[in-house]
Amino acid sequence: MNPPPRPPSPTSRTATQRAMRRENTNQLSSRDALVLMGMAGEPDSADKARLDSFFRDQQPGDAVDAPPRPSRELRAPGARLQDDIRDSANSASDMELISWINNNLPSTSPPATDLSTSLSSGLVLYRLAESIKGLPTDVPDSLFNAEGPEGMFKLFDFMLDNDIRIGNVSINDVRLGNKEKITQLVKSLRSWQERREGLVKGMSKQPSTAGPWLAVG
Questions:
Q1: Taking the CB of residue 35, how many other CB atoms lie within 10 A of it?
Q2: pLDDT tens-digit readout, 117-131
Q3: How many CB atoms lie within 10 A of CB 115?
């Protein structure tokens, strides 16, 4: 028995539709008129010639034109952020740290796009530390501006108060966008998060001990 005929591929179907498409889609062809009058028959000679000409010019394996990629402005915010991260010439290890930062930031915080300029105000680092601790403070974003060091003082005080290792990183290192020093702080914050999670898991595994029953007279 002969195998059943294979259905046309999506590429072939698209090519056929393109070949049959008229230049002026607002004008009825003779076949359209026949269809509307209920007397549809074979395609007219003009339609046949256009279809035959297309398939003579179309070689096997020729790619069908793909729709254009949406412009940067029309893409979703998450896709634009990923483009910003890639466009910053970050290495694979940098991108891994940046993704970790953004995954742990609250939705109200600006995102990190690199390990230098986008973190140099201290705001993103402070919001990250707040999020890891799980206790947001009332420190406003406006405190982290280029005119004064108050925001940086808040950041470093927070890290010192919570035993986050800052090593030899200074406020000026962060404000100047020193990538190596800022990366050191980010890694310290991640280590702090891992220690906190380890403590929580350890406490949850400890058996609970019940106190002595008290008799109520």
A1: 13
A2: 999 999 999 999 999
A3: 27
